């Protein structure tokens, strides 16, 4: 039985493939922001709309549906008057929390570097 030899080129190709998979799921302007919000707490649709500055209602709905389809968040319709919809991060989605922290830390450092100390 042959064992596969990992070469830097093969490892790079595998890393690129994995990153492309992540970008297909999290790509775009809003998904990481939505996930970040939901890592802190459950939120209603209207709360997310306020918290994620600049997103339109139509775009928020689309992004939430895609995140739900990828099992990163859950959507719960509460039995209230009027009906309230609440979104929460799933256990699987919570595995992205460290990723969001790293992105946020890098972004803060980048902002300082580009805009000055």
From TrEMBL:
<keyword id="KW-0804">Transcription</keyword>
<keyword id="KW-0805">Transcription regulation</keyword>
<keyword id="KW-0238">DNA-binding</keyword>
<dbReference type="InterPro" id="IPR002577">
    <property type="entry name" value="HTH_HxlR"/>
</dbReference>
<feature type="domain" description="HTH hxlR-type">
    <location>
        <begin position="12"/>
        <end position="115"/>
    </location>
</feature>
<dbReference type="Pfam" id="PF01638">
    <property type="entry name" value="HxlR"/>
</dbReference>
<protein>
    <submittedName>
        <fullName>Helix-turn-helix transcriptional regulator</fullName>
    </submittedName>
</protein>
<dbReference type="InterPro" id="IPR036390">
    <property type="entry name" value="WH_DNA-bd_sf"/>
</dbReference>
<dbReference type="InterPro" id="IPR036388">
    <property type="entry name" value="WH-like_DNA-bd_sf"/>
</dbReference>
């Amino acid at each position: 039985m042959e064992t596969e030899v990992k070469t830097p080129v093969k490892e790079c190709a595998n890393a690129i493939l994995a990153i492309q998979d992540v970008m297909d799921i999290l790509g775009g302007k809003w998904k990481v922001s939505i996930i970040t919000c939901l890592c802190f707490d459950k939120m209603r649709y209207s709360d997310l709309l306020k918290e994620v500055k600049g997103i339109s209602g139509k775009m928020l709905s689309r992004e939430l549906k895609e995140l739900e389809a990828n099992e990163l968040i859950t959507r719960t319709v509460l039995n209230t008057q009027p009906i309230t919809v609440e979104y929460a991060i799933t256990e699987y989605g919570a595995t992205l929390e460290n990723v969001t922290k790293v992105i946020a830390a890098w972004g803060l450092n980048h902002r300082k570097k580009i805009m000055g100390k």
